C-alpha cells in the first residue's frame, strides 16, 4: 500500500498538477477534444493537499468540483495549458502532467460559425501540431531538484509492447517518472479505478495494482517524495 497516506511528507512543498483534456476550436461552438475526465489529476491534487503540499491545479475543461485548499487555474486549449503550466512551474518542487493535451489544433479558427454548404460538401480541416509541454518543462528545468512526472496511455503495437513504448516515451520527453497505463483492454476514461506502472529515468519500474485513482495518486506521490530525499 502507498506509504505516504496519512503523513505530511509533502509539507513545505509546492506541487503543480495538470488535469483534464484540452479543446481546440474550429469555430465559436465546435472543437476537437478528447475523453479525459480529469479524475486522476484531481485525485493527485487532493492527495498532495492531504499530504501537506501547496497545490496548483491547472484544469482543462474539467467539470468536477474544486478540491478544497487547492488553487485551480482553468484553461481550455493546449496553448493556454502551456502558458499556465510554464507560469507556475518555476515555483514548483514537482510538476505532474496528468492532463491530456490535444496533439493538434486547426490551423485557423473561424470567428463566425461555420455553415453547411448547400451542395452537400464538407469543409476540409487542416491541423498543425501543438507544443509538447512535458518535453519543454523537462528540458528547461528551473531547479536540479524539480521532479517532473508524465503520463502515457499505451496499447502497444507492432513497434513495441506497452512498457517498451513507455520507456521510449520517458527518454524522449526527458521526465523523471512516467506513469504508464495499459489501455489495450479497453478505455479507462471516466473510470473510478486505474492500474499503472511507474517508470523512472533511472530504470526502475514500480507496479501499481488496480486500485482507486486516490490510491494510484498516493503511489505516484510516494515515488516523487523518494526523489526529493535522494
Ligand atoms: N503532453 C504534453 N504536451 C503535449 C502532449 C502531451 O505535455 N502536447 C504530456 C501529457 O500530459 C502526458 C505526456 O506528455 O503527461 C504523454 O502524453 P502522450 O499523449 O502519451 O504523448 P505524445 O508525445 O503526445 O505521444 P502520442 O503520439 O503517443 O500521443
Ligand atoms: Ca498525445
Automatic annotation (TrEMBL):
Keyword hit for Metal-binding: yes
Needed co-factor(s): Mg(2+); FMN
Known catalytic reactions: N-[(R)-4-phosphopantothenoyl]-L-cysteine + H(+) = (R)-4'-phosphopantetheine + CO2; (R)-4'-phosphopantothenate + L-cysteine + CTP = N-[(R)-4-phosphopantothenoyl]-L-cysteine + CMP + diphosphate + H(+)
Cofactor comment: Binds 1 FMN per subunit.
Cellular component, GO annotation: phosphopantothenoylcysteine decarboxylase complex
Sequence segments annotated as region (Phosphopantothenate--cysteine ligase): 15-230
UniProt KW keywords: Decarboxylase, Flavoprotein, FMN, Ligase, Lyase, Magnesium, Metal-binding, Multifunctional enzyme
A Gene Ontology biological process term: pantothenate catabolic process
Domain of life: Bacteria
Annotated DNA/pantothenate metabolism flavoprotein C-terminal domain residues: 10-225
Function, in words: Catalyzes two sequential steps in the biosynthesis of coenzyme A. In the first step cysteine is conjugated to 4'-phosphopantothenate to form 4-phosphopantothenoylcysteine. In the second step the latter compound is decarboxylated to form 4'-phosphopantotheine.
Protein name from the UniProt record: Coenzyme A biosynthesis bifunctional protein CoaBC
Gene from which this protein is expressed: coaBC
Full protein segment contained here: 175 to 404 of 404
Amino acid at each position: 500500500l502507498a506509504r505516504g497516506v496519512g503523513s505530511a511528507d509533502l509539507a513545505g512543498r509546492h506541487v503543480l498538477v495538470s488535469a483534464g483534456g484540452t479543446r481546440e476550436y474550429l469555430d465559436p461552438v465546435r472543437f476537437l477534444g478528447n475523453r479525459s475526465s480529469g479524475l486522476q489529476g484531481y485525485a493527485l491534487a487532493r492527495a498532495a493537499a492531504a499530504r501537506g503540499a501547496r497545490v496548483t491545479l491547472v484544469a482543462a475543461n474539467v467539470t468536477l468540483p474544486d478540491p478544497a485548499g487547492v488553487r485551480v487555474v482553468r484553461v481550455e486549449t493546449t496553448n493556454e495549458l502551456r502558458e499556465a503550466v510554464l507560469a507556475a512551474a518555476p515555483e514548483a518542487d514537482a510538476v505532474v502532467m496528468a492532463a491530456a493535451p490535444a496533439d493538434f489544433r486547426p490551423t485557423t479558427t473561424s470567428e463566425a460559425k461555420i455553415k453547411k454548404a448547400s451542395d452537400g460538401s464538407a469543409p476540409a480541416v487542416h491541423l498543425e501540431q501543438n507544443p509538447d509541454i512535458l518535453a519543454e518543462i523537462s528540458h528547461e528545468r528551473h531547479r536540479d531538484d524539480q521532479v517532473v512526472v508524465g503520463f502515457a496511455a499505451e496499447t502497444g503495437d507492432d513497434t513495441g509492447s506497452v512498457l517498451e513504448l513507455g520507456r521510449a516515451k520517458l527518454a524522449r520527453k526527458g521526465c523523471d517518472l512516467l506513469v504508464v497505463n495499459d489501455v489495450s483492454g479497453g478505455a479507462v476514461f471516466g473510470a473510478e479505478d486505474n492500474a499503472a506502472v511507474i517508470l523512472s529515468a533511472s530504470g526502475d519500474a514500480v507496479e501499481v495494482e488496480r486500485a482507486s485513482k486516490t490510491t494510484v495518486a498516493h503511489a505516484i506521490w510516494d515515488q516523487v517524495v523518494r526523489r526529493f530525499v535522494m
